[in-house]
Specification:
Structural class: alpha/beta
Number of domains: 1
Order of helices and strands: EHEHEHEHEHEEHEHEHH
CATH topology: Rossmann fold
Bound molecules: NADP nicotinamide-adenine-dinucleotide phosphate
CATH architecture: 3-Layer(aba) Sandwich
CATH superfamily: NAD(P)-binding Rossmann-like Domain
Strand content: 5-15%
Helix content: 40-55%
Length: 266
């Protein structure tokens, strides 16, 4: 079977851990050329070493998604090294474990900045190159929290909802340039996402949620994302039985309303 990822230039944010790391390792097996981004350079180097890709095929590009005012310069670095950009995976981000009433506005703004505006900013930075190439794929990691609000997730859920509005519009506007947009809605995936979630005092939650401990692996999630890219899907849901709530909301909204109140936030 043809390996359509061979030599493709793929930029992954949040590549130092969890879903982003798993995607990097799976795409390296398919001989893609990778740009790995996150804040922790040493963790990106650890992931890069595992990929066994040659220096020629790997760029470690650390930066903080809370300030992407230099997004054009970052994209230019990618182009300087590889000459093109085939896929941008907007994946980096963090969750929330705090009630809205107790959460300072500054924390709400930070959640929006990292989980929403950075995705918009990096996508705008690569789009001119994709337009010129007449091809490209923007992948956006949303969440089932991008489909309904949930306890302790007010601004995280708001940021994920915002991604759907922006990227569904962008998809319509850019498909004439050969650019595709995939929105991924994971349910529960076993990563450090709950440990890294922010609390109302701005510190990390630092606990593994029960619902994440036995969830789908990041590796399986990565395989499903890769398959969706290959099949040119527009939106996918990835996870286990927690995804049932999406169907219940569509078909039985009153039942959804009862059930969602009974779910544990952890
Ligand atoms: N796991 C789930 O159940 C689940 C469910 C729905 C959606 N998601 C989404 O999946 C994506 C990946 O999360 P994950 O589950 O893999 O969690 P994770 O293991 O905590 O990974 C998060 C990644 O994002 C990076 N990151 C966080 N804040 C950043 C910042 N300010 N600047 C740059 N990079 C930053 C982290 O790297 P550094 O710390 O090195 O910067 C790390 O590589 C997120 O968008 C998350 O919302 C996850």
């Amino acid at each position: 079977m043809k390996n359509e990822f061979k030599d493709k230039v793929i930029w992954i944010t949040g590549a130092s851990s969890g879903i982003g790391e798993a995607l990097a390792l799976e795409l390296a097996k398919r001989e893609a050329r990778l740009i790995l981004s996150a804040r922790r350079k040493e963790e990106l180097e650890r992931v890069a070493a595992q990929t066994k890709l040659a220096d020629l095929d790997m760029l470690i590009l650390p930066f903080d998604l809370s300030d992407t005012s230099n997004a054009s310069a970052l994209a230019a670095q990618v182009i300087n090294k590889f000459g093109r950009i085939d896929i941008l995976v907007n994946n980096g981000g963090y969750s929330q474990r705090s009630e809205a009433i107790e959460t300072p506005l500054e924390i709400d703004r930070q959640l929006m900045e990292v989980n929403y505006f950075s995705y918009v900013s990096l996508s705008k930075a690569v789009l001119p190159y994709m337009k010129r190439q007449k091809s490209g794929h923007i992948v956006v990691i949303s969440s089932i929290a991008g489909k309904f609000g949930f306890y302790l997730r007010s601004s995280y859920s708001a940021a994920k909802h915002a991604l759907h509005g922006f990227f569904e519009s962008l998809r319509l506007e850019t498909e004439k340039f050969g650019i595709k947009t995939l929105i991924v809605c994971p349910g529960k995936i076993k990563t450090n996402v709950s440990l890294n979630a922010v609390t109302s005092d701005g510190k990390k939650h630092n606990e593994m949620d029960k619902s994440h401990a036995n969830a789908m692996s990041a590796e399986e999630c990565a395989l499903q994302i890769i398959s969706a890219i290959q099949k040119n899907k527009e939106e996918i849901f990835v996870g286990g039985k927690e995804l049932l709530i999406i169907k219940i909301r569509w078909f039985f909204p009153k039942l959804f309303s009862v059930l969602i109140r009974k779910q544990s936030p952890y």
